[in-house]
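Per reviewer request, we include the raw input and output of the structure prediction for the construct analysed in the revised manuscript.
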Amino acid sequence: MNARVSLLSTALLGAAATSLLAGEPSAVEGITTAPSSPQRWRVGLGYAPLLGLKAEFSGLGTFGSNFAPQPTGGGQDYNYDDGYVHVDSSGNAGGQTWNWGYDNASQIDTSGDGSVAFTLTRSTGSGATEEKDDAMAGLEAFGYYDMGDLKIPGLSLPGAKWGFRTGIHYARIDISNGDNLRTGTSVLTDRFSLGGVIPPLAPYEGSFNGPGPLISDLPDRSVAPGGFALVSGSRELDVHLTTLSVGSFMEIPIAQKASLTFEGGLNAALASGSYDFVSNTTIANVGTRRSAGSDSGTSVLPGLYLGLSGIYQINESWALQAAGRYQYMDDYDLGANGSSANLSFDSAFILSFGMLHSF
């Protein structure tokens, strides 16, 4: 009897040991041995360049005249790009002055009583250009948490699972532009009647005390579009972009060691940057003006992302991952001295190449 009990005990212990080594649950006298818990966490680090960025620089080519337009009531000093009409020593008695001067013969119109025209030319500051950059180097760290088997009613996906993903991505964006541009101009023209007087040949400069040929001190004013101004210079946008993303994923096996992962969610980026520009604007027969400015600022840019990745499992703990992710966010804007820089993420996406570790 004792020998039979001993043999039965030995057999039960052997079966339990075999079952345990095989990774199967077993029961010995009511005690259950469970399998080891699955690895739910995967963390990764990868090289992740940011592509598809577009920067637009606008408001370029500011050209202001040295002189501001004055009211047209007469009896005051008028200064122009190509001459002047000032109050004389008589105080412009009779609405006329001899204290005037002009630069070019083309300013004289001999029809009727004759007139002399003076102009103030300024640019509209409408010069704009854009720069599309191929890729900006970036790094990212990310993690996946496995929530278990993916079950979709009416759809069979053997081995599929789902879970949550979070990540942080950093890239420095440095976009510069040196295109030569054109911008429109506007021309203010004031015409003063010569009253039949034959003007001196150009260039001519009258004086306060005179005497000299008298012209009307009351201008007839018009404003019209002019030609184009040429704009040269440089623009540079430098931004440090740190993006936090939170979402979910779905992973579907496609081979023994390979799987596809679909993911999507929300992101928020902290953009901190600066914009600097220098412009030289040239208007023919008027001159060249230099304008410059700089601005800096920090903004939070909300957005969303959608991605697809391929994972190759090297062993139980390590895997390789290649991913592509569309990353939309609000625009980032800076501006100074009439010019602005706009960084658009409408077509931005990230390529990521990294390693995953499971635990």
